Amino acid sequence: MEAVTKAWDTVDWERLQVGMKILSENIHHIQARVEAEVAALGVRQDDSDARKERLVGESNAYKDRTNKENRKLAIPLIKAFQNEFEGLLARSSAVNQLLLTSVDQSSICQDFRGKDVKVRKLKDKLAKLESEQDTFIENAVSEVEKKAELELNSRLAEITEERDKMKEQHDIQHEYPGEKLGHS
């Protein structure tokens, strides 16, 4: 228990609380940015889906409007658009993954904030335990002092009684110098 108490005494609680406050503010800022990015990602995804539908519709309309010979001429252009579209999907997927990683890091920060609450609770509990321990020690010291005082008073009473007896015997011997005490 003493080692734990010493370890807790070495913690700079004010510095830790300032750091936790800064971290909490950063978490709120990060959460706001993440929420904004998630919303923007949803808008971009909806826009991407609409554009994809439009592209498919335009492709089908082109197919219906043109003959096979003209479509063969457009195949390289269509493949180039398709490759660009697939590249955009890959980049979008990478951004989504990055955003999800950021959200995971944000949840770790929230977990850290939860740990801050636990640290505060532990600190309060430790202070309570220290207070209880101090009270227990004070009570124990007080009890020992009372017992010592009772024992001292008892011993003083015994010494005083012996002294009084010895004084009485001394006085009797000086009063009757030739007689021995206790013999008739």
From TrEMBL:
Domain (Cux N-terminal) ranges: 26-101
Keyword Coiled coil: yes
Species whose genome carries this gene: Caenorhabditis nigoni
Region described as Disordered: spans on this chain: 161-184
Protein name: Cux N-terminal domain-containing protein
UniProt superkingdom: Eukaryota
InterPro entries assigned to the protein according to its UniProt record, in alphabetical order: Cux_N
Keywords per UniProt: Coiled coil
GO molecular function, one term: RNA polymerase II transcription regulatory region sequence-specific DNA binding
GO cellular component terms given for this protein: nucleus
Gene name, Swiss-Prot/TrEMBL: Cnig_chr_III.g10591
Keyword ATP-binding: no
